[in-house]
Design brief:
single chain, about 450 residues, alpha/beta, about 40% helix, disordered N terminus
C-alpha cells in the first residue's frame, strides 16, 4: 500500500463563530463522513454522498468527507462556485496499478474493499490530529459491505444501508435464466452476513445502523437489531422550485416514463407487459425508456414480441439534468423494480409532480402511498402485470385522479422526504450519541 495517494483539503484554521443554520445554544458537531461515491450533479449513490455532505454542512456542523480522489475535480469545481467554510474533503485512492479491477465493472467490490481499508488508515491518522464527535459511513450503502471506520473508537453510524431486499419468489419465474441464478447467489451473499466474522465485528462496533427498509433490517444478525432503525437515505429539495410539468393535451395518449438501469431485477419486463395491456384500450399511449444496461437486448426483443416497439422510445443513458427535464413531459413514472433499496428516480418524479406506479416492495413501496401513486401488491406474475396495467389505465381515464396524485406527489416530496426533514432526523441520532459518549467519559 506504499503507493496509496492522499490529498487533504484543509480548513483555513481561522476561528469559527456559530455557523448559519445552527440553532442558538446548539454547538456544532464535528463529523467525519465516509462517502466513497460522492459527486455533485449526479444521481444514485454519488448524488447521495454529495447531498448528505452539503446538507449536513448547511446545518452548521463541521463536516469532513473522506472520498475517492477520482471525485476531486467535480467537487472542487462545485466548491469554487459556492464556498462552504465548514465543509472539507479528504481525497484518497488506491494506486493506479490497482484500478484496472474497476474496468467494465469487474472487480469493483474487491477494489471497494481495499479502498475501505486504505480509507481506515487515512481516517486513523486524521483522528490523531483532531477530535470527531461522530463518524458516519454513507456510501456505498450496502449492509453486507464492511466499513473499517467502525473500529476507530468514535461513535459510528452505519448507513442507511440496504441490499437485504429480495425479489418476490412468485415473480422470479419471469426472469431469464441468468437472472434466476444471480438472485440465488444474491440470497446466499445476504445469508453469509450472519456468519461473516468481519461484518459481525462491524455491527458490534456500530452505535447505530440505519436500514433503508424493513427487509434489510430483518437481514441484520438478530443480536444487533436493537441498535438499528429504519431510515431512507433519500431526500429532495423543496418541491416549490420544481420544474413545471406540461399537462397532457386533451385527447392525447398517456405519456408513461421509465427511468433506470436495464437489468432484469428492475422489472421493466413486467412494465412492458403492462404497457402492452394498456395499449389495448389506450392505443395512443407512449412509453419512454431512459437508461442502459446488460439486459437491453432482452427487453427490446420482448417489446418487439409484445408488438409495442413502435410506441416505445429508447433514449439510452442521458445526463442527470436531461433526466430531470424529462419528467416535465410525462404523466406517470412506471417503476416496477423488484428489490430496490430506495429509488432515487421515484423521489425525482414526486418532486416534479409525476405520480408513480410501482410494486409494493422495497424502497419504492415505502416511499409511495395513496397520496402520490398507485402500488400493486406482490402476487403471481399475471396478477402483478394486470395490476400495473389497470393502474396505468386509471390514470389515463381519470384526470381527476391524476391531478390529485400529482399534487400529492409534490406535497410528499416537500414534506417527509425533504432534506430538512431527513437531516433533522439524523441530527437527532448524532446528538443522542454525542450525549451518551460525553456521559461515558465523565463517568
Amino acid at each position: 500500500m506504499s503507493q496509496q495517494r492522499t490529498t487533504l483539503r484543509m480548513a483555513d484554521g481561522a476561528a469559527h463563530e456559530t455557523p448559519v443554520g445552527m440553532p442558538a445554544g446548539r454547538a456544532p458537531l464535528t463529523i467525519l463522513l465516509s462517502a466513497y461515491a460522492c459527486e455533485p450533479g449526479k444521481g444514485s449513490e454519488p448524488g447521495i454522498g454529495w447531498y448528505w455532505a452539503v446538507n449536513l454542512a448547511a446545518m452548521g456542523h463541521s463536516v469532513w468527507v473522506l472520498t475517492r480522489a477520482n471525485n476531486c475535480a467535480l467537487i472542487e469545481t462545485a466548491l469554487a462556485d459556492e464556498a462552504r467554510e465548514n465543509l472539507h474533503f479528504i481525497y484518497y485512492d488506491l494506486p493506479p496499478w490497482m484500478r484496472w479491477w474497476k474496468r467494465r465493472g469487474h472487480g469493483v467490490q474487491l477494489y471497494y474493499l481495499f479502498w475501505q481499508w486504505g480509507a481506515y488508515r487515512v481516517a486513523r491518522k486524521l483522528c490523531m490530529q483532531m477530535r470527531f464527535d461522530v463518524i458516519h459511513h454513507i456510501t456505498f450503502g450496502v449492509f453486507r459491505h464492511p466499513s473499517f471506520l467502525a473500529f476507530l473508537g468514535v461513535p459510528f453510524v452505519f448507513g442507511p444501508v440496504g441490499g437485504g431486499e429480495a425479489a418476490p419468489p412468485a415473480l422470479r419465474s419471469t426472469f431469464h435464466w441468468r437472472g434466476r441464478i444471480a438472485d440465488r447467489l444474491r440470497d446466499f451473499a445476504n445469508w453469509t452476513v450472519h456468519v461473516n466474522p468481519l461484518m459481525r465485528a462491524v455491527f458490534r462496533n456500530t452505535a447505530v445502523t440505519l436500514c433503508k427498509t424493513a427487509e434489510t433490517l430483518q437481514k441484520i444478525p438478530p443480536r444487533y437489531r436493537s441498535q438499528c432503525m429504519i431510515q431512507l437515505e433519500l431526500a429532495t429539495e423543496s418541491a416549490a422550485g420544481a420544474i413545471v410539468r406540461r399537462l397532457r393535451p386533451v385527447g392525447s395518449g398517456l405519456r408513461v416514463l421509465y427511468v433506470g438501469r436495464l437489468v432484469y431485477w428492475k422489472g421493466l419486463h413486467l412494465g412492458l407487459m403492462a404497457f402492452a395491456q394498456l395499449l389495448h384500450s389506450e392505443p395512443h399511449a407512449t412509453l419512454t425508456v431512459i437508461g442502459a444496461g446488460r439486459d437491453e437486448r432482452w427487453l427490446r426483443t420482448l417489446a418487439r414480441d409484445l408488438g409495442v416497439e413502435e410506441t416505445v422510445t429508447w433514449r439510452g443513458r442521458i445526463d442527470h439534468v436531461s433526466v430531470i427535464a424529462a419528467y416535465a413531459n410525462h404523466d406517470v413514472l412506471l417503476f416496477p423494480s423488484l428489490h430496490d433499496s430506495s429509488g432515487n428516480v421515484v423521489l425525482e418524479a414526486l418532486r416534479a409532480g409525476v405520480p408513480v406506479v410501482c410494486i409494493d416492495t422495497g424502497g419504492p413501496g415505502a416511499i409511495i402511498d395513496a397520496s402520490c401513486g398507485l402500488k400493486i401488491p406482490v402476487a403471481r406474475a399475471h396478477d402483478v402485470v394486470s395490476g400495473l396495467g389497470d393502474a396505468l389505465q386509471r390514470l389515463a381515464r381519470e384526470p381527476a385522479l391524476a391531478a390529485r396524485l400529482s399534487a400529492g406527489a409534490m406535497a410528499r416530496a416537500g414534506g417527509e422526504f425533504s432534506w430538512a426533514s431527513r437531516m433533522a432526523s439524523v441530527e437527532a441520532v448524532y446528538r443522542a450519541l454525542h450525549t451518551a459518549s460525553a456521559g461515558a467519559k465523565v463517568t
